[in-house]
Write a structure and sequence with these properties.
Blueprint lengths: L1 H8 L4 H16 L4 H6 L5 H8 L10 H10 L6 H5 L48 H12 L4 H6 L1 H25 L9 H6 L15 H13 L9 H16 L2
Helix pairs in contact: 1-9, 7-9, 9-11
């Protein structure tokens, strides 16, 4: 039973995977080897090797390492740290003042605020919509004051933690995939690997509810692996993007 919990947790954290992808692409775009990057003010060769090929146990980089990444990769200061928040880094050559966001015009229908995910950074968000019942279950686990002995010998407690971790991971996967804009946009490979259990034909839960099955199919549709014959998933995505756009005003 413990192996199932390990499979949930034994994944490369999305922030480290995002940083690794951004760093490797930028280094290659600049035509630099890892040693060359170090000579340009970046981290050491060994540090770069860890950053570009993280594992589930890779430690998050120190602030000083992030600063050296910005320097060596010619990014705007704070860009490397922003990658850990799943934000795209800004090259120094692209550091142009952003145009002010267009205000909501009188009479503008909400539909005009809906984007296809191409405007702005689809991963720049602070909150994830989690079903109330998922949060309630998590709070209940905390109130029960589970101890290490409970987890070591209590199958029921371990099952509850596994289910809770899976539900949170599924909710996070849905939020990220929605913000990428749906099946018409390409999903980065590292996200497909990270969210793989939540993109399979069957949900990873032992006893899936109808809602969990529908959510799994919705996520599969978001990556182009499932049809939406009724148009219900497209409507769900439009409503989500509309809500995101309205919150940004």
């Amino acid at each position: 039973m413990g192996d199932k919990l390990l499979r949930v947790l034994d994944q490369i954290p999305p922030p480290l995977a995002f940083l690794a992808d951004a760093v490797a692409k930028r280094r290659r775009a600049l035509g630099l080897t890892r040693i060359g990057l170090h000579e340009a003010g970046g981290p050491s060769d060994s540090t770069m090797a860890r950053l570009e090929a993280p594992t589930a146990t890779t430690a998050y980089p120190r602030p000083s390492t992030l600063d050296r990444l910005d320097s060596g990769l010619k990014w705007v200061p704070g860009s490397a740290a922003g990658c850990l928040d799943l934000r795209e880094p800004t090259p120094l050559e692209d550091n142009m003042p952003a145009a002010p966001a267009e205000a909501l015009k009188p009479g503008m229908p909400p539909e005009e605020l809906v984007t296809d995910g191409s405007a702005g950074d689809p991963l720049d968000f602070s909150y994830v919509a989690v079903p109330v019942e998922v949060l309630r279950e998590g709070l209940l686990l905390i109130q029960q004051n589970l101890s290490p002995s409970d987890l070591a010998g209590g199958t029921s407690a371990l099952d509850s933690l596994i289910r809770f971790a899976q539900q949170l991971s599924a909710a996070h996967a849905t939020e990220v995939l929605e913000r990428f804009g749906g099946p018409t946009r390409s999903i980065p490979g590292f996200l497909q690997i990270t969210f793989a259990p939540y993109l399979l034909p069957d949900p990873p839960f032992d006893q899936s509810t109808d809602q969990q099955i529908d959510d799994q199919n919705y996520r599969r549709w978001l990556v182009g692996a499932q049809e939406d014959q009724s148009g219900r998933y497209a409507c769900r995505l439009r409503n989500k993007l509309r809500a995101i756009a309205l919150q940004a005003l």
